[in-house]
Amino acid sequence: MKNRIPVVLLACGSFNPITHMHLRLFEVARDHLHQTGMYQVVEGIISPVNDSYGKKDLVASHHRVAMARLALQTSDWIRVDPWESEQAQWTETVKVLRHHHSELLKSSAQMEDSRKTPSASADSCNLPGIHPCSAVLPELKLLCGADVLKTFHTPNLWKDEHIQEIVEKFGLVCVSRGGHDPKGYILDSPILRQFQHNIHLAREPIQNEISATYVRKALGQGQSVKYLLPDAVIAYIRDHGLYSSDSPWKGKGNAS
Amino acid sequence: TTPGSSEPVTRRAGEEHLQPEPVRPRQPAVQVVGRVHQAEVNHDDTAPMTAMMSECHLDQQLQLVTADTSEKTDPTLYPGKYRVIKGIISPVGDAYRKKGLIPAHHRVIMAELATKNSHWVEVDTWESLQKEWVETVKVLRPGRKRKWAEQNQNSSPKKPQAFKPTGVPRVKLLCGADLLESFSVPNLWKIEDITQIVANYGLICITRAGSDAQKFIYESDVLWRYQSNIHLVDEWITNDISSTKIRRALRRGQSIRYLVPDLVQEYIEKHDLYSSESEDRNVGVILAPLQRNIAEAKHNSSMA
């Protein structure tokens, strides 16, 4: 089997709440990278943002992490990581990338160590798709929508040196749909232009505009969000009374 | 094609987008649905009612969007007129002869898997079991309604009903804007059928905000006359998950995860349902309604 570069996809965001659209990002990105023939996506990580990010309507991170976990119950390659949400304060994206990169280094070192003990090696080199006990460290890439790429242009939102580190040292996989021009965003930025070889543009041909904002609004009005999020997440939201307004008919809405 | 033409009507690959696709032919896996069942309440009923909320099935993916068809959002202040008590998915029979249509029993099973966790949406197999293609208006007929009404009385409600529905539940056809617009495809629908559907039953049409549905209604005398029976519901979540794209993704080995219910995706995979071979089914065959309506028109004109 041809040696493909193993890749781990990291998605940062509010996930407030997680929806099928978020999960689609991973599937589309993976298909795209596999299509190039150069990569093998071995893992996906969802990293919900810290509460102190201060975004309006952000429910407590332990809920957002729990909901993501429920949503990923049936996924065999994507997992949620609470590290970012557990930090004392908001952490820049580049630092989250650095953290997960060092985690990959650590587990790779552990694999190396276990290679020296032949009996343990078969189990420990178990990352799917990787030649057993491969010495190749997976490349960690930031997964995002085209709208995030656009925010690189927002003044003062990102530090230039961070943008550079993200695209130079790690790499970006950007999933877009209609209404965005990711190539244009790249060409408009000298830093992005310079490292465009490290920016993978995946296109989602199936428009699916499930915005978490809309979902929160619908929940606040007692409207159904069934089939927009996994059932387990909807049940969690209902059980914990999340995203409800204090409307008198809360709970009498259409059963899912 | 014009009536009397001897050329078979075929849809060449890649030209699907050129004609407005009727909702029913568009998805081989599941009939776009629906017959939404609703109860009409007496005007003097003072019990507060929930606004009509219709969860609409779009394509086989059953991506549901809640549509609040009452203009106000707080139903205690502005009670709606209807209560939706049942949603029915009626997969079309194989005799429809749509290109790419795989056998009905698979499509029925997928619909059942997809609605497994729904308390109110279910699959009706009657249409799929008929040997000949059945016009939509016949699927809506009273005999079927009685069956659904009985079912509703027998099943124990999961939640106490805030009011008692009075009278026989009304059946309405649930669809997307493309079905509405398919009314103008020559020979696809009989004008008397369209009239019956909007006059005696009613249409609930989920449309993308800013679509041409209103214009279409305006330009049709029949639809205009019965416009009070046509409910246009704005879909705020642009949802382009068409069955055609799903089948295309499957042919290309791309993931359809999170676009269809997991159980449906697993079933498709297990039975390897969609391929270029399956997509070629019924190529060169005339769609059943076209065949029937053109033949009847010929017969009628030869009798005249």
UniProtKB/TrEMBL annotation, chain B:
Phylogenetic classification of the source organism: Eukaryota, Metazoa, Chordata, Craniata, Vertebrata
Subcellular location, record wording: Mitochondrion
Main location: mitochondrion
Enzyme superclass (EC): transferase
Keyword entries, A-Z: ATP-binding, Mitochondrion, NAD, Nucleotide-binding, Nucleotidyltransferase, Pyridine nucleotide biosynthesis, Transferase
Pathway as given in its UniProt record: Cofactor biosynthesis; NAD(+) biosynthesis; deamido-NAD(+) from nicotinate D-ribonucleotide: step 1/1; Cofactor biosynthesis; NAD(+) biosynthesis; NAD(+) from nicotinamide D-ribonucleotide: step 1/1
Any one GO cellular component localisation term in the record: mitochondrial matrix
Positions in coiled-coil regions: none
Region feature Disordered, mapped onto this chain: 1-29
GO biological process: NAD+ biosynthetic process
Keyword Ribonucleoprotein included in the entry's annotation: no
Reactions catalysed according to its record: nicotinate beta-D-ribonucleotide + ATP + H(+) = deamido-NAD(+) + diphosphate; beta-nicotinamide D-ribonucleotide + ATP + H(+) = diphosphate + NAD(+)
Any Pfam family hit: CTP_transf_like
Superkingdom per UniProt: Eukaryota
Cytidyltransferase-like domain sequence ranges: 83-248
Family: Belongs to the eukaryotic NMN adenylyltransferase family.
Composition bias, Basic and acidic residues: 9-19
E.C. no: 2.7.7.1, 2.7.7.18
UniProt-listed InterPro entries: Cyt_trans-like, Euk_NMN_adenylyltrnsfrase, NadD/NMNAT, NMNAT_euk, Rossmann-like_a/b/a_fold
Function, as annotated: Catalyzes the formation of NAD(+) from nicotinamide mononucleotide (NMN) and ATP. Can also use the deamidated form; nicotinic acid mononucleotide (NaMN) as substrate with the same efficiency. Can use triazofurin monophosphate (TrMP) as substrate. Can also use GTP and ITP as nucleotide donors. Also catalyzes the reverse reaction, i.e. the pyrophosphorolytic cleavage of NAD(+). For the pyrophosphorolytic activity, can use NAD(+), NADH, NaAD, nicotinic acid adenine dinucleotide phosphate (NHD), nicotinamide guanine dinucleotide (NGD) as substrates.
Named cofactor requirement(s): Mg(2+)
Protein name: Nicotinamide-nucleotide adenylyltransferase
Subunit (UniProt): Homotetramer.
GO molecular-function term, one example from the UniProt record: nicotinate-nucleotide adenylyltransferase activity
